[in-house]
Amino acid sequence: MYLINATYFNGPWRDQFDPSNTAPGPFHRADGSTVSVSMMEKTENVVHPTYQAKQFRAVDIAYGDSLYSMTILLPHEDASVQSVVDSLDAKTWSRVTEGLAPQSLSRLKMPRFTLRYEKTLNDVLKDLGMGVAFTGRANFRDIADTSLAIDKVKHKTFLRVDEEGTEASAATSVGIRVTSAPPSFVVDRPFVVAIREHHSGTILFLGTVMDPTAG
């Protein structure tokens, strides 16, 4: 018997990227090499919640009716993705989500990318005490009359990020005191990406993008 858990998320942006602004741009990989990727860009009325931490900057990009959003953690140039991942505990994540505040940006630039992840969970589940379910002593009488045992448990994840989205049905005005030119947020090196639901705080996806062309 096979147990397969597949997760798919394809949410429309609240404020879309204009495909005509997408152009090739450099993405600097962790090994120091550079690859050309399709970079999406917004330069008009760009207001997104951001957060500044010791090792990274964060930007929050809303989907649809803002119940869901993508949060990108971009390590500073002197930090690595792994160091950011290692620092992400519940307390740090809470500081990020609670500290996000609207900021005017001169531009938001990020790559199109696709993430695919597949993992067999047999060993993980056995370590958690489910070993008997993979043997002849397994008891699945509630779902079948014949003797069954789990042969393989797989988890698959697919995430695609591109320009598609729907424009907001209502405009939000944010007052910001301008003291200098607005900063830009350019995602041109490896980063952490999370998709979260706002009411419960549930993280639907959490991963790293090391090379947008590798998906």
Could you provide a short overview of the structure?
By secondary structure, this protein is mainly beta. The chain has one domain: Alpha-1-antitrypsin, domain 1, CATH 2.30.39. The protein contains 3 helices and 13 strands.
Q: What keyword list fits this structure?
A:
Alpha-1-antitrypsin, domain 1; 3 helices; six-stranded antiparallel β-sheet; 13 strands; four-stranded mixed β-sheet; about 220 residues; mainly beta; single chain; about 10% helix
Your description of this structure?
InterPro entries: Serpin_CS, Serpin_dom, Serpin_fam, Serpin_sf, Serpin_sf_1, Serpin_sf_2. Belongs to the serpin family. The chain is mainly beta. It has a single domain (2-214), classed as Alpha-1-antitrypsin, domain 1, CATH 2.30.39.10. 12% of the residues lie in helices and 41% in strands. The chain is built from 3 helices and 13 strands. A 6-stranded antiparallel beta sheet has the order 7-4-5-6-12-13, covered by helices on one side. A 4-stranded mixed beta sheet has the order 2-3-8-11, with no helix packed on it. It has a 3-stranded mixed beta sheet with strand order 1-10-9. The longest helix has 10 residues, at 90-99. It is elongated and about 65 Å long. It starts with a strand and ends in a 6-residue tail after the last strand. The relative contact order is 0.28. Residues 165-180 have low confidence and may be disordered.
